Amino acid sequence: MAMLTNDELSKQIVAFLTDYSIEITPHDEAKLGEIREVLSPGTAVYIAHPPNSPIDDVVKVAGKVQKLGLRATPHIIARKLESRGQLEQALAALQGLGVDHALAVAGDITAAQPAFDSSLEVLQTGLFSKYGFHEVGVAGHPEGSKAIGEERVEKALRGKAAFAATADFKLYLATQFGFDPTAFTGWEAQTTAKGITLPIHVGMPGPASLRQLAKFAMLCGVGASMRMLTSRTSAMANLLSTQAPDEMVTYLARHRATHPDSRLKKVHFFAFGGVVKTARWANAVLSGRFVLNKEATGFRVEDVN
């Protein structure tokens, strides 16, 4: 990679984090006032659909997020949908609440009799167009997916790219979270070589303890990425120590600076350590309150509050 001065690199880090998105669940509903205070107007807030929560809860919280001046992006999980009618009812309700962004994913947990097997099947219903959606994210798997398998992941990606070519709304790839930036740059190169042009929103964890990161990494099948994190940290002796994604942000910001055509467009935070904590960390970086380390491979945030 071409050399950047520390000042240039710092500016690239800020540029990469600008317009970041963040994820909540319906369980965060009581904290929405506090969350709103730490997010800029228009920030994309994904509303996950956790187990044992009905889709109506996702719709309700999305409406509240949108009303707060944020950009609600509810998860629409194909295999949790019991009928086309349930999907249509949810999208119609979201339209009525002013929501026109969503994330469509297949999902690992299924309904007793799911109406859909993939996010592509949901996209192909035409209902996102019918209900005025402007932009929809679809899943990207830089480290693959054990639950789906490599062949199906590849087929799904090609199908989504083909769909995007004729859709009347924008599509982008929202990736699973990871800790290894080279997995993302490698995946970007591989998919570009296959003719995929969809922009990529890079999923990464916000500041969280190693214990929290390990728990979610194993649940979500990114064990290889987790092994890389633990192999290069001296904090393994203390599983409660907080790990921030500064090295990953720095590496990818440098990559974007030296690859002007990069499809890595923005950061999406999985806030395992807390939404407010993650937002405050990101906001401190955006405000320039950080110092690069001696090797310029990462940075320390000086004032998170």
Can you tell me about this structure?
- The protein has helices at 6-17, 32-38, 55-67, 84-96, 119-123, 127-130, 150-164, 181-193, 210-220, 223-231, 246-258, 275-286, and strands at residues 21-24, 44-47, 71-77, 101-105, 135-140, 170-175, 200-205, 208-209, 242-243, 264-270, 290-292, 299-301.
- By secondary structure, it is α/β, with parallel strands linked by helices.
- The longest helix has 15 residues, at 150-164.
- The strands form three sheets. It has an eight-stranded parallel β-barrel with strand order 1-2-3-4-5-6-7-10, surrounded by five helices. A two-stranded antiparallel sheet has the order 8-9. Strands 11-12 form a two-stranded antiparallel sheet.
- The two termini are 34 Å apart.
- The radius of gyration is 19 Å and the shape is globular.
- The mean pLDDT is 89.
- Helix 9 runs antiparallel to helix 10 (223-231).
- Strand 5 (135-140), helix 7 and strand 6 form a beta-alpha-beta unit.
- It contains twelve helices and twelve strands.
Helix content: 40-55%
Number of helical segments? 12
How is the quaternary structure best described?
single chain
What spatial form do the alpha-carbon principal axes imply? Answer: globular
Q: Which blocks of ≥5 consecutive residues have pLDDT under 50?
A: none
**Termini distance?**
34 Å
Structural class assignment: alpha/beta
From the alpha carbons, calculate the radius of gyration and give it in angstroms: 19 Å
